[in-house]
Amino acid sequence: MSASNLFMKPGFVRAPLQNGVGRYVCQLQRVVLKFCKTHGASRGLRDFIEQDLVEFAKGNPGVVVYLKPRRHRGPVVVAEYLNGERIWMNMHNKTHSEITKWIETLRTQQGDVSATRLRKYQYTAYPSIQGPWSPFTFREPELNTAELPDVKFGENNRLPTSATEQLRLLFERQRLGDGQEKTAE
Amino acid sequence: MAMIRAGLQRFASVFGNGQGGILSKFITNLAPVENKSLPETTKDVIATCNKLAKEQASRNFAIVHLLGKQWRVTDGDLLVVEGYWPPNIGDEIRLDKVLLAGTKDFSLIGRPLVQSGLVDVTATIISKGLSHTRTHFKKKRRKQFMRVNFQRAQQTILRINSVEIGDKINEAPNNAF
């Protein structure tokens, strides 16, 4: 699903229930591990259940873990979150380490993050604190009462002096100096 | 008469303190750097800024450097950091690389960083997940070449808890780094 996909809905960064403002609450509420006791496709999930599941449940007292053995059905992990979202994930032929990583991802994310394309990577309720800039910010207040067009405000003093202008100024200064010398003699 | 007056003016201008006069070589407006003390107005400005920082008169903001990007943050912001980043959910971290900090009335500009211990930006990791699947589609026409690659990046969501400016502007820094 790319950004141009019709079914990929765009969205903005949000956190459910002001999470993290006062304290942090783990958003994962429930995990259901569905597997078959005999089929080879469930082997990785069975390994995970045998070796890591007790540790996982102890480490996350806020997460309810269900096991659901089903005869001759594929292995599946379903995660449910505080904001009501539900992620269904097929674990067919996945190895033990892969399943460990996926379940860690399911635990740490807040809801179905990957279902939306983020349009902005930052959210702020206060876009500007010192006020947005405008062309009149930090200008002289004199400008408010000036009658426009005005020579003072209309002059173009932003460009550097051109070579021709510099030569002209030099010439005029010289001529002025000549006149003074003549008067001094 | 006019000639004499002009001559006198010229003579006076040679010895005057104005630009280009002979005496200007001996008289200088610039005090040596070692003896330079803060002018009264500067002290007043710093004292006012310290007072504003202490009173917390308005909302603070800061520009922090985080994983090669610069973010303008204020209290309660959410940031999404892409790529591998070790902090895990629930961790509370302090963002130390502050490039600029400010309130409504003043700004502290770092060169390049604001001195350590002056500005305190804290954040909590909220979520660590994967982005949506991005498709990298490459095709060259009439060359029998096409590649479709899919990738998902790690995304960490941060909540900015506080941006605090201490009321010790212009005090000697404690060299934490």
UniProtKB/TrEMBL annotation, chain A:
One biological process term in Gene Ontology: mitochondrial translation
Gene Ontology CC: mitochondrial large ribosomal subunit
Entry keywords, A to Z: Mitochondrion, Ribonucleoprotein, Ribosomal protein
UniProt-listed InterPro entries: Ribosomal_mL43, Ribosomal_mL43/mS25/NADH_DH, Thioredoxin-like_sf
Pfam families to which the protein is assigned, alphabetical: L51_S25_CI-B8
Subcellular location: Mitochondrion
Domain Ribosomal protein/NADH dehydrogenase: start-end pairs: 37-110
GO molecular function terms attached to this record: structural constituent of ribosome
Family per record: Belongs to the mitochondrion-specific ribosomal protein mL43 family.
This protein's name: Large ribosomal subunit protein mL43
UniProt source species: Operophtera brumata (Winter moth)
Organism phylogeny: Eukaryota, Metazoa, Ecdysozoa, Arthropoda, Hexapoda
UniProtKB/TrEMBL annotation, chain B:
GO CC terms of this entry: mitochondrial large ribosomal subunit
UniProt key word Ribosomal protein: yes
InterPro entries attached to this UniProt entry: bL21-like, bL21-like_sf
Tagged with keyword Ribonucleoprotein: yes
Coiled-coil portions: none
Domain of life: Eukaryota
A Pfam family it matches: Ribosomal_L21p
Keywords, ordered alphabetically: Ribonucleoprotein, Ribosomal protein
GO molecular function terms listed in the Swiss-Prot or TrEMBL record: structural constituent of ribosome
Family indicated by similarity: Belongs to the bacterial ribosomal protein bL21 family.
PANTHER family linked to this entry: 50S RIBOSOMAL PROTEIN L21, LARGE RIBOSOMAL SUBUNIT PROTEIN BL21M
Protein name: Large ribosomal subunit protein bL21m
Organism: Operophtera brumata
